[in-house]
From TrEMBL:
Organism: Streptomyces echinatus
The organism's place on the tree of life at top rank: Bacteria
InterPro entries, alphabetized: Phosphatase_SCO2771 (IPR031423)
Name this polypeptide is given: Phosphatase
Amino acid sequence: MLTPDRLRAHLVAVRLAGVVATTREESLRSYRLFAARDPRALIGIDPEGAWGPRELLGLMAQRCGVSADPRYTSGPDAIDPERTLAALDAFAGRIGEAARRGAPVLFGTGHPQRLLGFYAGLADALSAAGCEVLTPAQGRCVDILTRFGLRTHRLDYVRGVALVREPASERPGCEPGAHSHSPLPVRVALDAAAAAGGPLPELVVGDHGWVCGAGQLGFEAIGLADTDDPALFVGEAEGRVSVVVPVDDAVRSSYYLPLIRYVLNRACLSQ
């Protein structure tokens, strides 16, 4: 059995929490962009409060455990593993509630190279528990603004988890999907589900724009976020996102597998 102590040790050993690879410079840049209401940092959240860089730093210190000292401007950032464990417990609670209700669930990730396996493990367990894992708008095209300009992506599902692909990435041997912060894919998926008259998700699970976009539209949303993703934590603070787990979102995919075991155990589900 994976106890909290063993998971805490794992989180720190592989740098999912504790000192993480995300730098302080990256985090502070994201806070400045969010404060300026840059869509690249908002990723679907329309904040109600006056979130300046100082307020965001205070929020991230409270929710993640980053240093609250504004004079600390370079070097590695940090996530308090106790906060990660507490959020994983709350995350597992929402997963367990969805399983008990047999609720329809939508999974989506902007980090398919890293987090696909984590979400797929949860999707498998919820499907086995009687939940419908939704796959609306399969194959639909979505135009996403990237640093290279406007690019057409295709919405796809792998093991029940939504992701987007650029046409060039569909060649054999390419990565399983594109890294994306955009909330457009979840909006397209939810619009398609509503237009089809089928079930709408009672829970959206994911990261980046999948969580923020769904939460902003009034859907219950939970997910993972790094120290440079303030939008999810603002959404949580303002009540549009239910649970955010602070964790480095770009380590090896295998390092997230123990989190599946922990969440499913806490949710009283089996993998």
